[in-house]
Each structure stands twice: as C-alpha cells, then as structure tokens.
Design brief:
Helix content is 27%, strand content 15%. The termini are far apart. By secondary structure, the protein is α/β, with parallel strands linked by helices. It folds into two domains: 37 residues, no CATH class; 119 residues, Rossmann fold, CATH 3.40.50. Helix 2 runs parallel beside helix 3. The strands form two sheets. A five-stranded parallel β-sheet has the order 5-4-3-6-7, sandwiched between helices.
C-alpha cells in the first residue's frame, strides 16, 4: 500500500501489493465496483486474463487512443496486453497492425487475431525504428508499448507519426528508469 503496509499475508509473512493492488488472494475485501461475477463453471486459468491483460490492452486501444478505421498501428510486446491491443485495433478497422516482439513464437497468435505483419527486432539488420519507418516514412497513427522497457517505450514514441501520431505507454518501467528521447 502507499503507506508501506500490506493487507495480505501468508503464514504470518506479509505479501506486498503490485502497483497498489493484488490479485493472487484466496480471500479479500474490495469495493463492490471492483468485483465482477464469474460463472462458476468457467475455466479460471482463462478467465483470469480478463482481470488485467484483456481489459488493459482493449481499453488502451478503444478508450484511451480511440484507434479508428484505416489506422496504422504498431504494438510492441505480444503478451496478453499487446494481443488485446491488436484485437481491439482490428475490431476498429485498422488497416495495418504490426506486432513487435523478441519472441517469434508469439507471431502465429498475433496474426490469427489481427496483426497484418510481425517483426522480431533481434532478427532484422539494423534498428527497429528504421525498419518500421521504411514502409511508413512519417510514422504510425498509433503505437503501443506493452513491455515496460524504457528503450522500447522510446522506440514506440519515435515511430509515432510526426505531427499527430499517438504513443500509448501501457507497460510499467522499473523504478528509477526514465525515457530519454529527442522530441520532434
């Protein structure tokens, strides 16, 4: 909690929250607005994704950035949050959705749900920014960082379209890390 205390413990040992909340609990007390009723027959290993990954990625694309028809989008990080951004961008009618991840095994899933192409920065020659800007000279309408890496956050910001592009930082950087960039 902000005051350094914890509401949770196991065997008398405190368990600390991540970013002011905690979800790995057998029992907890929360505000009614924070609760969602789950069908008792649901597969909890799948439904748990709705708690953060899906709603965060989906909300960033639709509510925060308002991705629209014919948008060009880049999503850095293809975990649950990034894949949800892709799904939402596809639903909104984005014409180009590029998924970027250092794990190429994630590309098949990304393509199935809406990515139009995927790229692994470790498998290209040169810089990821130059690679992405080779096909979109002035940048992309919307870029999303779903990694928490300040270097990737910078890359996402710097491939957003000059003048009107929006870059949404969803990932959470490690304490004390800062983004450094040269603004246009």
């Amino acid at each position: 909690m902000p005051d350094g205390t914890s509401r949770f413990s196991k065997d008398g040992k405190p368990i600390f929250h991540f970013m002011g909340c905690s979800t790995f609990s057998e029992y907890t007390v929360i505000a009614e607005i924070s609760a969602a009723k789950i069908n008792p027959f649901s597969d909890l290993s799948k439904v748990c994704m709705l708690g953060c990954g899906v709603s965060t990625g989906w909300g960033a694309a639709i509510n925060t950035c308002k991705v629209h028809f014919n948008s060009k989008v880049v999503v850095f990080g293809l975990g649950a949050v990034g894949l949800s951004v892709i799904q939402a961008a596809k639903m909104q009618g984005a014409s180009k959705i590029v998924g970027v991840d250092i794990n190429s095994k994630k590309f098949e899933s990304a393509m199935k749900i809406g990515a139009t192409e995927c790229v692994n920065p470790t498998e290209i020659t040169g810089d990821i920014k130059a690679h992405l800007l080779a096909s979109e000279k002035w940048g992309y309408d919307f870029t999303f960082d779903c990694t928490g890496s300040v270097k990737v956050m910078r890359d996402a910001l710097e491939v957003a379209h000059r003048g009107w592009g929006e870059s949404c930082v969803i990932g959470v950087a490690a304490s004390g890390h800062e983004i450094q960039t040269r603004p246009f």
